[in-house]
Amino acid sequence: MTMPIFLHNTLTRSTDEFKPIIAGKAGLYVCGPTVYGRAHVGNLRSWLFADTLRRVLQANDFIVTEVMNITDVGHLVGDGDEGVDKLQMAADKVSKTAWDIATEFTKLFVDDIKKVNIETPHVMPKATDHIAEQIELIKVMEAKGFTYAISDGIYFDAAKLPEYGQLSRQKSEEKEEGARVVVNAEKRSASDFALWKFSPEGEQRHMEWESPWGKGFPGWHLECSAMSEKYLGVPFDIHTGGVDHIAVHHENEIAQTLAARGVLEANYWLHNEFMLIDGGKMSKSLGNIYSLDDLDLKNISPIGFRYFVLGAHYRTQLNFTWEGVKAAQNALNNLVDMARDWQKPSVVDEVTMGKFMLAVNNDLDTPAALAVLWNFVNDGAISSDVKAATVLKMDEVLGLALEDVIARPLRISEAAQKLLDEREVARIAKDWERSDLLRDELFGLGYAVEDKPTGQHLRERR
Ligand SMILES: [Zn+2]
Description:
It contains 15 helices and 14 strands. It has helices at 41-59, 86-93, 98-115, 131-143, 172-178, 220-232, 246-261, 292-297, 302-310, 322-340, 350-361, 366-377, 384-398, 414-428, 432-444; strands at 6-9, 14-17, 25-30, 63-68, 147-150, 153-156, 193-198, 216-218, 236-242, 266-272, 275-277, 318-320, 447-452, 455-460. Strands 4-3-9-10 form a four-stranded parallel sheet, sandwiched between helices. The relative contact order is 0.12.
C-alpha cells in the first residue's frame, strides 16, 4: 500500500507531501528532555506526537532511524544565554552533582516513555558525550567568520547569516523588542546566542571542559546540530519539537548548521502545540504540573493518557482536564473489554484500513483515525475475527498495547477471585466499608473493579 503522507512543515507553512532524501527511509530527530526533573504531561505530549509520526512512517513501510537527544548540560534557566544551568540548579538544591541528576532523571525519563508505549529511539545521544563534536562545529563556524568572543563566551553572529529567522519569520529587531529580560549588553544583537560559555571566574562547575577558547561548556542549541549531523547526516528528513522551540532553539540549530555546512539541517520541521491545564498554563504555584504518578493516583493509566493525547490533533492546543482524561480512560477500557471477547485475528479489512491510513497520513489526524476505529468496532455486521486483525493493524500506529488483550479473555488469579467473592458477600450485606477495602486490595493486585447493574465488573488496570 503506497499512499502519500502529508505533513505540515513549519518551515514552508504548508502541508506538503513527505519526500524522503533516500527512498524508503526516514531520518527523524526528536528534541528530547533536559534531564533535570520528571517529565510532565505536556512534555509527554510532545514525545507522543513524535512517536505517532514514527509509527505512521513505519506503517507506510519506511525504515525509520530515530534520534532523540538527552540534554544534560548547557540548557540555562530561561532558555537563553543567561542564568544558571538547569541541571546544576537542580543538583545544588539537593546537594548532588549535575552528573547524579542527569543519571537519575534520564532513567526516569526512559521509564516514563516506556510506560506510555513510546518506541525506544534508535539512538539517545547525550550532550556530554559529544563535547568534541560540538567544539569541532564551533571551529568550523569560527573559521567562516560566524563567531565572536565576549567576556562570558563565544557567540554566534546572526547578522552574518542572511537566512537567519526563516523558521519563525521573526526579524532580529522584533526579537530585541520581545525579549523579556535585559539582553547581555556585550552581545551585538538580541538574536546572537552562545555557542560556548566560559566557566565563571573562580568557580568550579560540576560539568566543564577545556576548549580552544577556555574552560566552559557548550550552548544548548549546539548539541542538536552536532548530534543530528553525526547520527543522521546533513540534511536529514524530519526534525520535531514543541512550538516553544520554534523561535529560539530550532532557529538557532538551523543557523549553526547552515553557517557551518552551507545546507539546511532538516527538510521538514514539525511542531506540536501546547497542552493547557484546565484552560490555563501549567505552573508550580498552581500545583498542576502532573506526572504519570499523579495520573496513576486518579486511576488514569499511562495508556489511558496516550489515548487522551491521540484524541486531539497535534497542532491544536490540548486542554487537560480530569474529566477529559477520565473520559479517555473509559473509552480505552471499553475498547479493551470489547477486544478481549473477539475471536482470534483473521484477515484485515482493507477498506477500513485504507480509511484509517488516509486519516493518519493526513498530517497525523489521530482524532479522525480513532473515529474510523470506533465506527468499525461498533459495526455489528463485521465478524470479531476481522475486527481483531484490523484493530491489531491499526494499533501499530495508535500504540495502545492492544496486542495484550485482543482475543485474550481476562485471567483472574486465584487470589483475586477470592477477594472478589468476599466482596460480593460484603456488598450483599451492604458492608460498604469492607467492600471498599476489598476493592483497594484488588487494585493492589492489578485489577480495577467497577460495580455495574449486572454485578461486579473486573478488569486489569491498563
Ligand atoms: Zn534540540
